[in-house]
Amino acid sequence: MSETRKQLGYLTEQLDAMRAAGTHFRLRVLDDQQAPICHYDGKEVINLASNNYLGLANHPKLIEAAVEATKKFGAGSGAVRTIAGTMRLHMQLEERIAAFKNVEACVVFQSGFAANAGTVSAILGKEDFIFSDELNHASIIDGARLSRAKIKVFRHKDVAHCEELLAEVQNEPGRKLVITDGVFSMDGDIGPVGALAGVAERYGAIMMVDDAHASGVLGRHGRGSIDHFHAHGRVDIQVGTLSKAIGSLGGYVCGSRDLIDFLYHRARPFLFSTSHPPAVPASCLAAFDILESEPDRMERLWRNTHSFKATLASAGFNIGGQNTPMSETPILPIIVGESAKAAEFSRALFDAGLMATAITYPTVAQGKARIRTIVTSEHSPETLAQAAEILTATAKKLAIL
Fold first, then answer.
1. Is the pTM of this model over 0.85?
2. Based on the domain organization, do 158 and 112 belong to the same domain?
């Protein structure tokens, strides 16, 4: 063993521990398009693992827009946005998102993770306070840590607890930021955006919402949780993603013009990452057109969600509602409990022709490992019925049902 390998030997030990615990995984490789039925590792499977909620990742109009932009403007942008990498397409996309979200301005980041982490760390400092839901996304947690602000965690969706924590420090100097997911990515429940906005207003706090899993899913034409709760003008910072329902890549932040101008100057992921290639903003622009012109996609998404949720419940699966939040969206978790059992379930499902990912500790709490299923607008009723049959038969074999 070389010196370098000895120095990193502790990583091998941790990987061996994962293998012993049954939670080590290898990456599944997609061989074709991100579709309801596709091929991973050469095997045809029903796909219940994708965030492609509306099927836009392989919509002909997005593909055409990406190809045309690549032909016209090239394969890459060649620089960060603040030097020479801001193309007309980038600005058009930001203007389009701002209009869609009913705000003054928008900035697009390289990913949703970068948008959250870069924004929180840019706007707050060590003298400030962050009030964060205990189940907020990892990007929010990392951004809070990077800001060096004092972090106060409130119980999941517990508005009264958030207010209690705000009251404790209301007379202390420093800015206060309340932040929640619009839709929580592991349980699929909806954050109490309107109620938290009211609390933030009472205490003069900044209100921020991560709408990654709500954009394209909730609100009019997919405008998100702020629109769902009729909270326009009450949320200072809206974060979203372009890589889930929008079907492409990236993240964005919406708000006042001064907020966005400040992030142009101070958000480190924006300042130090090369901008998206032309194909990305072009395909995103096409996606927002489709959101407004094809409302039937969201209608199909919600029909499939309600139907599949009812099927899982009638089969006897634990889909939340006891010690786990109940899903209210197309994210439909099947709670298994132990991480090793969830990982075994996922592998057996794949062997039976169903792609459904195990979510284990530390992504979720100990004892709350689950199979996370996600339906899309493009799943047919027949495909979802077949998926339910595979889930039920496999769960019975493993004594999960």
1. yes
2. yes
User: Does residue 279 belong to any structural domain of this protein?
Assistant: yes
Find the helix or strand (DSSP H, E) in which 383 lies: helix 381-397
- Nearest alpha-carbon partner for 145 in 172, 116, 107, 181: 116
Residue 383 CA to residue 391 CA, distance in Å, equals 12
Residue 301: CATH number of its domain: 3.90.1150.10
196/264 same-domain check: yes
Q: Are residues 237 and 339 in the same domain?
A: no
**Which amino acid is it at 205?**
A
Which residues are bridge partners to 47 per DSSP? 355
Q: Which residues are catalytic?
A: 185, 213, 244
Digit-coded pLDDT (tens) for 135-154: 999 999 999 999 999 999 99
- pLDDT by residue (tens digit) across 345-365? 999 999 999 999 999 988 898
* Residue 225 structural domain: 59-293
End-to-end CA distance of the chain: 46
Number of independent structural domains in the chain: 2
Asked whether 224 and 39 are in contact (CB, 8 A), the reply is no
Alpha carbons 202 and 255: distance in angstroms, whole number: 20
DSSP symbols for 239-252: EEESSSTT-S--EE
Distance CA(5)–CA(364), nearest Å, equals 31
Helices (H) and strands (E) in the chain, counts: 15, 13
